[in-house]
Write a structure and sequence with these properties.
The protein is of the alpha+beta class. The relative contact order is 0.21. Strand 12 and strand 13 form a beta hairpin. Strands 1, 2, 7, 8, 10, 11, 12, 13 and 14 form a nine-stranded mixed β-sheet that branches. The protein has three domains: 138 residues, no CATH class; 74 residues, no CATH class; 137 residues, Immunoglobulin-like. The protein contains seven helices and 16 strands. About 5% of the residues have low confidence.
Length: 368
């Protein structure tokens, strides 16, 4: 529950005028209220750090950590949405806690290599059209990631990625040897797939987001033996991963991880991100068109004591007011903080001294 700004204002006026110390105008009060709220809010994080170093209390109502968690929870947003196609955090975020993607569709397909790939197939180029997450623009069309299986003496042994983005794999050898090579090539090079191998059969798994291929996963061939005599595709299956968590790294680590094939996260089960500027964020692997969520501590809304003037007197207007965006237990602290600041504004140091003593007694009683 928020703290009523009118309650605080009336208490501030009553205490400030108790000994004719002066009058605080609504404009002055709103400025002091905003500063007091921000000071209290910022102190939560410093107090939390200090409390972690102190012995705890078994009673939640008497434990400093639990009390601070309760106060901070007022400002916690769960499941906020990243903006600008997952490139910016919410503008009201003060402290980013976690970034994650939920309910991700996963698609898996088995590929069984049926025969030994020998020199008889030198002119054969088998293309496996494997679906990916829709980012980028492959030569064969948006949404298709091509894996081309080459048996050609002119190709470099192993695997490489061509200029059009297709993954080429040399497939010399037995069916099980080819399965091993293709699995390694996928895991080392594809930013969209992971693969496992058992004998002559691999299982390739990838994200279903951005599924743009109009037909089923397909095999096509150049000249030579038909693809169906070389391998068999199983029936695609789908599953759901409940959550993908992105871990924050700094820019140096980001560059190193992204350039390292072994560390580069390609699985939907984990990812990394780094922040830049005031609100910029970059994710790896890319979430494509998926909605990425974040939990964060939001900045408190700016308080405002709204009023209308009637007979040269300012009267409270609830329709034009914004209450304090703090835990209800902070009403007394807010009142004292604003009075302390008001003593400076109206040039009455005695008011500040009285309030400082009052606050010191309050803190001493709380720490007993």
């Amino acid at each position: 529950m928020a703290v009523s700004i009118d309650n605080v204002y009336q208490k501030v006026l009553a205490l400030a005028n108790k000994e004719q110390r002066g009058y605080i105008t609504p404009q002055e009060f709103n400025l002091l209220a905003d500063k007091a709220q921000n000071d209290i809010f910022e102190m939560y994080f410093h107090e939390y750090k200090t409390s972690l170093l102190s012995p705890g209390n078994q009673s939640k109502t008497a434990d400093d950590i639990d009390m601070l968690r309760e106060k901070i929870s007022v400002h916690r947003v769960v499941g906020g949405t990243l903006g600008s196609s997952n490139t910016s955090i919410p503008i009201n975020a003060h402290w980013l806690e976690s970034v994650y993607r939920s309910s991700i569709g996963k698609r898996s397909i088995t590929i069984k290599f049926d025969t030994t790939w020998s020199a008889d197939h030198d002119t054969n180029r088998v293309q496996l059209r494997a679906i990916y997450d829709g980012t980028g623009n492959q030569a064969s069309g948006e949404g298709v990631y091509n894996i081309i299986l080459n048996h050609d003496g002119s190709d470099v042994a192993g695997a490489y990625v061509s200029t059009n983005g297709a993954l080429h794999v040399d497939v010399t050898g037995s069916a099980s040897a080819v399965a091993e090579k293709v699995t390694k090539a996928i895991n080392d090079n594809s930013p969209y797939h992971t693969a496992t191998v058992t004998g002559d059969t691999i299982t390739s798994t990838y994200n279903t987001t951005g599924y743009a291929w109009t037909g089923a996963e397909a095999l096509s061939t150049g000249s030579g033996t038909a693809a169906s005599t070389l391998m068999t595709l199983g029936t695609p299956t789908t599953s759901v991963i409940e959550q993908t968590v992105y871990e924050q790294v700094d820019k140096d680590d980001w560059t190193y991880i992204k350039s390292n094939k072994k560390l580069n996260p390609t699985s939907n089960s984990r990812g990394i991100f780094y922040r830049y500027g005031a609100s910029g964020i970059e994710l790896l692997p890319s979430a494509g068109t998926d909605t990425v969520l974040c939990d964060y501590i939001q900045k408190p809304a700016k308080p405002n004591w709204g009023y209308v003037v009637v007979g040269d007197k300012a009267l409270y207007n609830a329709n034009n007011s914004t209450d304090f965006d703090l835990h209800a237990s902070e009403e007394s602290t807010l009142t004292n903080k604003i009075l302390e600041l008001a003593g400076i504004v109206i040039n009455k140091p005695g008011l500040s001294e009285v309030i400082l003593r009052n606050e010191a007694v309050k803190e001493a009683n709380e720490n007993k």
